[in-house]
Request: fold
Amino acid sequence: MARIELSNIQKKWGAFWGVRDVNIDIADEEFIVFLGPSGCGKTTTMRMIAGLENPSEGEIRMDGEVMNDIDARDRDVAMVFQGYALYPNMSIYENIRFPLRMRGVPKAEQDAAVRRAAELVELTDYLDRKPGALSGGQRQRAALARAIVRQPQVFLMDEPLSNLDAKLRQAMRVQIKHIQRELKITTVYVTHDQIEAMTLADRIVIMQSGAIQQIGTPDEIYNDPANTFVASFIGAPPMNLIEGRLSGGTFEAPGIRVEGLPGAHDGQVTLGVRPEDCRVTAEGAHLGGDVYGVEPTGDVTYLTLKVGESLVEVKADRAYRAALGQGESVRFDPDRIYLFETGSGQRLR
Amino acid sequence: MAAKRKKSRGENLVLRYLILCGWALFCVVPVLWFLSIGLRPRTEIITPTPIYFPTFSLDAWHMIWEDWPMGKYLRNSVAAIFGSVIIDLILAIPAAYSLSRFQYRGREDIGFYILSTRMMAPAIVAVPIFFLFRNLGLLDTIWALMLIYAAINLSFVTWIIRSYMLDIPKELEDAAKTDGAGELRILWEIIIPAILPGIITASVIAMIFAINEFLFTLLIASTPNAYTMSVALANFTGGSDGIIYNAIALVAFLAFLPVFVVVVAIQKHLSRGLTMGAVKG
Reply:
């Protein structure tokens, strides 16, 4: 229910840049995910939106109104924290009611709102308990209920699922997305988990060292990465990046030869190809190497080939098996080969 | 091999219990000794020959309540001690909150300064404090005792509470802020309930120090008007009756008992509070 604009946001601590030149326009009702490794500035950016941190420079606007000098408690923003941050001395009911009490919601409405929020996250039976008596997943849902209970303008979620086990994480992911769609509340979500980012986001903001690397829909980020950082951060296993020489549209590296590439970038380049865009076949092969490892997972088999000095990952058929050291040839999907400038890592188009 | 290990473990356990029993005895015997002196007639206390089966007597009990205003001393003690602890908490909780939460220049130095007030030998300031309270017209009042006990204990009460506050995740306050709470609300509704064990620990330790305080109490309290239990004890050593050992023993035991009961009751919190202070510094 709010549009958020960040313009030229900088955050410095002494000589250290936490965040630099962040410009994002987050649309109303959008689900945006900040993705990046730890220390990339994604949490700091979120904390600035929350008002828990002040930008050194730049402007934060919500629905056009500048928020820089507005206290966290006066911004209509609800936040879910990595460590849940439930108040240990209060029952779950009191925890969920706390923001309503702080904002002077009439008593008569409080109870109904708490119960509605608890119902939404399926915690109705646990309202009398203290946070200490709940499991990790239940605590996470309680924290979520506390955030949604007052129907804020903006949801902020700081790695809310990272303390949960894989199975629970998936279930909660679906629940979070469902609740966000139902309540239609602008949501900013911080994570270092690319699967979470891909599955939840309307748009992903990829950050590294305090700067935005790329903003785009999950499809754009996956299909059209702006640089090697984005290319290797999205996708599991990550994109293969192979250094070599390009001349006259032909890429060459030890054990690899790819023809028919755009010829404008002759010289040292990095070729990128995703494991899922590789096929084990001798016909029209681009690459030849020795089997270094075979990892069956059930639905696919990961094949690692040693090509020259580097290892190349291939997503092979689930039935694929091979002996170590055996020679193997691979063909890349010619439409899904990326070229990056070696050094800067920027995409060559 | 396994059997042997098991046996040595058993021996170990016996040894451990022996040591613990010895230590317990070492701690408890003086207390029981005091109690036994306090419940004996005066004539039986100082004798050249040991008495194995002493006569039970409530002489001292009657004496301390009937011949001396022990009830008043007890009330003075309680009032001065509780008053001082309340003053300490009122001052220490905001101080600790500030020291543990806000960023400002000199924060660490101020924290250390507060702690360092404890490092000075009390006798150094005894005379100035006497004049200070004389000028304030507070000599011989429990108000003065309250203030002195509070001043003596304020440093470590602040320090213990601070160490508990440092243990509270910052996220909790951030959550409260985004939920719409102001600083005082956060302190009152989130922080204080969360560190209640620390507040109790600090209060009890302050009580123990206060109940044992002698030097300043003697200095300030010149008449029974402001005598506390600890100073009252000294009264039994002078005068025409000589040293009244059984009364001394009984009063000492009575002063010890409430502290003992409280400490046992909150033992778990206490050990945590002390080690936390130690580790976190």
User: Anything to note?
Assistant: The CA atoms of residues 40 and 57 of chain B lie 5 Å apart. Confidence is low (pLDDT under 50) at residues 276-281 of chain B.
